[in-house]
Prior knowledge:
The complex is a heterodimer.
Chain A: H1 3-36, H2 43-61, H3 69-87, H4 96-118, E1 133-136, E2 139-142, H5 143-165, H6 167-177, H7 179-184, H8 189-214, H9 222-236, H10 241-262, H11 267-281
Antiparallel strand pairs in A: 1-2
Helix pairs in contact in A: 1-5, 1-8, 1-9, 1-10, 2-3, 2-4, 2-8, 2-9, 3-8, 5-6, 5-8, 6-8, 9-10, 10-11
Chain B: H1 2-23, E1 32-40, H2 47-66, E2 70-72, E3 75-85, H3 90-102, E4 108-110, H4 115-128, E5 132-134, E6 150-152, H5 158-169, E7 177-183, H6 186-201, E8 205-212, H7 220-229, E9 233-237, H8 240-252, E10 259-262, H9 269-275, E11 283-286, E12 295-296, E13 300-301, H10 302-313, H11 319-338, H12 343-352, E14 354-357, E15 360-363, E16 376-381, E17 384-389
Parallel strand pairs in B: 1-3, 1-4, 4-5, 5-6, 7-8, 7-9, 9-10, 10-11
Antiparallel strand pairs in B: 2-3, 11-16, 12-13, 14-15, 16-17
Helix pairs in contact in B: 2-11, 3-4, 5-6, 11-12
Amino acid sequence: MNAAAQIALQNAVNGLLIGGTYATVAVGFSLVWGTLNVVNIAHGALVMLGAYVTYWLFSLYHIDPLLALPLTGAALFALGYPLQRFVINQVIRASFLITFLLTFGLDLLITNLALAAWTADIRSVTTSYSGWSLTAGPLALPVVRIASLGIAVLAAALLHLLMTGTRLGSAIRATASDLEAARLMGIPVAHVYALTFALAAATAGIAGGLISLSFPIYPAMGAGYTLVAFVVCVLGGLGSVPGALAGGLVLGLLQTYAAWWLGPNFDNIVAFSVLILVLLVRPAGLFGRARRFRG
Amino acid sequence: MARYRRCAAALTALIVLGALAWGTGGPAGGQEILKIGAPLAATGADAREGALTKQGYDLWVETVNTRGGIKVGGTAYKAQILYYDDQSKPQISAELTDKLISQDHVSFLLGPYGSPATFADAAIAERYKIPMVESNGAARRIFQQGYKYIFGVLSPADEYASAMLKAAVSLRPRPETVAILSADDLFSLEVANAAKDWAEHNNLKVLYFQKYPVNTPDLSAALTSIKSLHPDVLIGSGHLQESLLIMKQAQTLAVNAKFFGFTVGPTTPDFAKSLGPAAEGVFASSQWTPDVKYSGPIFGSAQDWARLFQIRYGAVPDYHNAESSAGALTLQLAIEKAGSLDPQKVRDVLAALDVVTFYGRIKFNAEGLDVYKPMVAVQIQHGKVATVWPAEIASAKAVYPTPPWNARQ
């Protein structure tokens, strides 16, 4: 295999790995946007909280970050439920701009509380296996990130099953597609909304936990991930788990190849150019179905 | 009940005695206050470095006030720094500089953190003719505007990477090739371009030169390209989070440079703490280390200052701390020498100042930049920062070449 082919293959691996991270970040964002019609600007802040929960469990109680993922998810679930039930639900019927502003405020609040509590120090979860890497011919396969990708896909699959195969999933989807009918059928809408948001927060927490294993963490890290989630949703379509997964992988591959061919400074330029193109040509996303918005 | 009262009395006595002891030589009641303004990041991307800067400034304030304050003519002034959070945004920093001068009526300014903010604030200081001594903006561009009121106590940006390259070419076998990765901001690019220039003029072949967006979440594509080029030296010009990212991804992608060097990162304690064994052998340049052999007024020697810092903050100082204390000290020395609080007189003294401090020689060229103080190269050895270049002040011998990842424990 010649050198260029080796680099191309390694970059495919790199792109899929970062894409898996993007997908885990985006899946909850997509769920909330698609179901509640809320663009949750605070999603990245929840990812950041997940990273810190993992970090503290690891550094204070020596709990392995991968084993801590269910705990991290549960902690963020417990935070997400009241956040939606008692805060965002208050304005959920108001215009799109109001919920947008509210979550923007929540993002500032959470980020600055984290800054006050934990300072701006840059931290990192370094386990004994953090630097492990498998070699497959000329390819380097970072163990932790492969495991992260596996867990990301697993979590997405579980969420997909939950959405399609359980009464809760049906209730969430029913509420999203026809609010009035769902309410008439006796679905407790406020409760379902809160559960949906809590589920999204849990996936954000798990994403944060996985990110903390491979990337530096600090209170302001969330903003970049909110942006990533936004792009993934537009690429993949709203409210669908497979869409978020596909959107994340496409974005990861796009950025990685752009960084290789044009230089690392071009990864976002290319990603956003594609984003605009997709919005023009297929506004429902590459993998989304055309969706009617209620007025 | 009586016991509590006795206890309270003892405590009161202790506090009063303590205050008296602290107060000897300290500010007397009714002492005049000299307000100095500093717009400084407490939130945003530079919050971490902003906090390091503040530690350096505060250590100076506390030291000078316990020693009786700033002496101007016959009067001793208690030093006070007015901080505003510029949120790591240059335009906000400039607005706050304006506010400090026009509303808070400060007579002097200390710099913010970082070249972009310093660049913005310098224009405001210049407009009001208020001297600003800055210690955290090393970009040459700040000093190429013809400004007369900005003074930087740190070595300029072009030294940051070239100090490491000078150290690298002194090692044997002499490295022949270099890859440079730079964050896309004013300061980092200036550093990276200077490094490229220096390398090309000194028989080091530049195999790779690319910039990336600040705070990028992933650099695996860039590192994959670098890996295929097998450079001897990898230089990263950016920020702490990116130096951590590069080392983590270099490790998992098995990028085996013989010399990893970063302009920013390794000298902060967070670097070795975050990376653990993967931090071993990483090089960095530094404005200052406690190993330098300078000594001067107020703080004594570099070691004395470092000890004072350690006692006050319970942590090993980083060069950001030292240069910030040095900047504030420089302003004090100029005010005292001028014997006046008149900004113009202090500015003139600053322009002609030539003094050796714990931090090194302070003397400004016509642009207001301290080009008389050399930088040093350091390396992480056994989890600690060791000074390895120049040879005459080195505290340890450089370990080179860095072993490949699969040969490390």
